[in-house]
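yo

u said u wanted the structure for the complex thing, so here. seqs first:
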Amino acid sequence: MTIMTKPEAGSAPQDTEHFLSVRDLYVQFATEDGTVKAVDGLSFDLDRGRTLGIVGESGSGKSVSNMAILGLHNPRNTTIKGSISLDGQEIVGASDKTLQRLRGNKMAMIFQDSLTALSPYYTVGRQIAEPYMKHTGASKKAARARAVEMLAKVGIPHPQSRVDDYPHQFSGGMRQRAMIAMALVCDPDLVIADEPTTALDVTVQAQILDLLKDLQQETGTAIILITHDLGVIADTADDVVVMYSGRVVERGSVRDILKTPEHPYAWGLLGSIPRLSAPVDVPLMPIPGSPPSLLNPPPGCPFEARCAFSEHVPDNRCVTERPLLPPGRGSACHLTPEQKQTLFDEQIKPRLS
Amino acid sequence: MLRFLTRRVLGAIVILLLISLVTYLLFFVLPADPAQLACGKNCSDPNILQSIRERMGLNQPILEQYWNFMRGIFVGRKMPDGQNCPAPCFGYSFADSQMIWPELKDRYPTTLSLAVGGSAAFLIIGVGLGLMAAWQQGKTFDRVASSISLIGNSVQIYFIGPLAIALFVNNLGWLHNGSDPDWGSHPLASLNGLILPCLVMSVIFWSNYSRQTRSLMVEQLGEDHIRTARAKGMGSKYVFFRYALRGAAASIITIFGIDLGSVFGGAIITEATFNLHGLGMLSVQAVAKEDLPMEMAVMLIGATAIVVFNIIVDAAYALIDPRIRLA
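structre next:
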């Protein structure tokens, strides 16, 4: 949180203008069974030099919403509504050409599984050099030198010779580093890291996260970190949004979310993390049930069916009425702030320490 | 790459030796007595048969005969009856007592040209159609191409061959009727005479290739590394041809390698349809006349062609997929 925000070039018209602004984003897929509402009214902001963590379980719309930021969805079966503004440039509905100019240049993505996410047919060096040549117009030779430089930067030993290796000749951790080198080759202002460490073992995971943090300090990049690992979030993020069923259910600083979470879903996420300091005979508390169908989402709170606290809300409102997310720090839940406070202090906190 | 190729070539030589051995042994395992076949129908005198055996060298040990036969192919040999047979020597035909190689030499260009030309035609047309369908996935062209493929897949060479001759040669006059090529002295006429047979032969193949190419491309386009390439800002065409096609090409080449045998089979049917004089007709006649040396020679040449083409396919495959090269 102490990372300096890069001053905007020129003058920002209002102080509320953010580098990346997602407003009421809806992403829907047409399938044979009906319309899948994968992202259902998502809003968040991100400034330069900051890291936003997006947490949620599989299918909560984390990756889908970020693919939308890059404009990677197939327009034939996808409907995208709302607004995504990157440094004043509107992404939703932008032409293919505009998007191609932005992708890999101003915004880049680090994918999860580096074995399938890198092409097996081209050398690592070529795959890193390609976007550099395209976006900066550099020569083949300059791009190759840049690829070597990037490989060295992400800590690949002997980059001079490894640049000509194919992805299958790299180890998993090295491939992920190469992936990061590829994303950062054009010094993007926004990096979306989609579970960058999920496939890696814990020591490599820590190295990769450190690497991302170092590179951010160096260039003031804004980072979106998608993960379902709250440990990763605790290490790297400044702000956090918790997604559930295509929506944000809670928003706050990393400290807010980890120390005083408000939404029962966030409580559940925290409760299902094993702790080294906890007594071994106390069982973990998984969240019961599974997320609702995105084809026919329930009219009320999507978490209602799995929520242990809905009886504290009068008039069955959890079933009939969709809770709204207040602006700023807050959660989309019908419980009153006092109820949240009491329930958390009495029932959740003792289990977490 | 060089080591890979050396390994493949050495393997191919072993395979060819085995094939030649098995073929040669078949010669003796078959119920028919070669001497009897060489002699003809009204030949029951044991003395005559014995003299034929001696003249053909059939009284020598089998392995020695095989050795002489193989040596004859590479360096030529003196036949047991004293006649000189220059390399490559496949012996004499039972049917007309002529040397076999000049006959083969006369005919193999037709079959080879058909196989190569037909393959080129169905690869270009089939893969091209498949690529266009994949590019236009779900749109009208895609659906039309799929239907055409289905029709192409369900016709036969000997059915569309005469139809094509009637339409393109006799009525419209756009193309020449099929004729045997003579690349040395009439290259242009050779080409003209092969266009229609190659196109007709390609029909039964390209429908398959267009469907395979389309589905392979659609599959490739859904791969993670395609998404990565797009996320880097690479253009759709670039991603389509450089990334997706590269992946699909490896599989297309594999299918082509498997199809090689059918390609030669198709060439033989095409020869018959267009009344061309290639190896196919030759081997059919040889079987009908129980001309064993001719059958053996055609079989060996066919096997060699398929093994050689397979090496080329393997090399192409290794060029496309670095994981094969280094394995």
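The first strand of chain B starts at residue 77 and ends at 78. Strands of chain B lie at 77-78, 84-85.
cya
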